[in-house]
């Protein structure tokens, strides 16, 4: 296995670990509501850290942006905004469908499209038949693994509280159908953050042209793409703060601000590492890397749940489903790595 591939896999693994645990600090909140946390999280992860990293690591950053055309700026911003809308729809979908079904639809579609769209749009001519078979096989195992993991989580929650059902189940079938369509729309839009990075590579190439290494040049893309995602996230947070009057919770000093800041650091750190990993993974980095990051993120979140006792009371069938799901994700990792060689 080439050394660059090993480094790329290692960076993607670290990114998956950080992304899989980025919401863990929210469990330690004392007084803040979701929208309080999300406001601070969005400011830190989508504005402060991307610009700070880019300013520190990319030489001639403003010259890089000044040399770009209008389209080269607008495309990643628009994709970032689409991802920001998907962030809002995710919370709504989970509320209407329940975690298991919403997670399977959204994460499954997001991983599938986020891997295949850059592959076929940008890199199809660079992939041989054997490599393509490995990649498609890896994507198939990835989707199956995500579905089994979501099913296992759903079975676990039913054992914990058999009476807990999504509120939508008492509504007419048409409402259920509309909720599923909403989740599908969210799944289609969820990988737009990867599209923003993949189709914003002209920014990175311009940074390289001005003397930056490929690894550092990747940091120039994030402030542009994430600026689009900031608007829907901050807008929804402000809407909830006003509707629930939870902005009053900001007035007394609270240690919750540190947990929200840590969330932002873990999330942005994950995508900073992902951006670096794409350089080491080669031409297919923005395709294969996305799939691998989703796999490592899901595996990390699952293993963290096991270690913190979330699966202690789960049924044997739920644990069997979880084991099969993780096995599929391991197989997907191997096949995607083979397809990238």
Outline the structure in words.
- About 0% of the residues have low confidence.
- The longest helix has about 30 residues.
- Helix 4 packs across helix 11, helix 5 packs antiparallel against helix 13 and helix 6 packs parallel to helix 13.
- This protein has one domain.
- The protein has 14 helices and no strands.
- With about 350 residues, it is mainly alpha-helical.
- About 50% of the residues are buried.
Poorly predicted tracts of residues:
168-172
The general outline is globular
Distance between the termini: 8 Å
Order of helices and strands: HHHHHHHHHHHHHH
Helix proportion of residues, in percent? over 70%
What is the structural class?
A: mainly alpha
> Rg to the nearest angstrom?
20 Å
Largest sheet: none
Number of helices: 14
Give the averaged pLDDT, no decimals. Answer: 84
β-strand amount: under 5%
Overall structural domain count = 1
Strands, count: 0
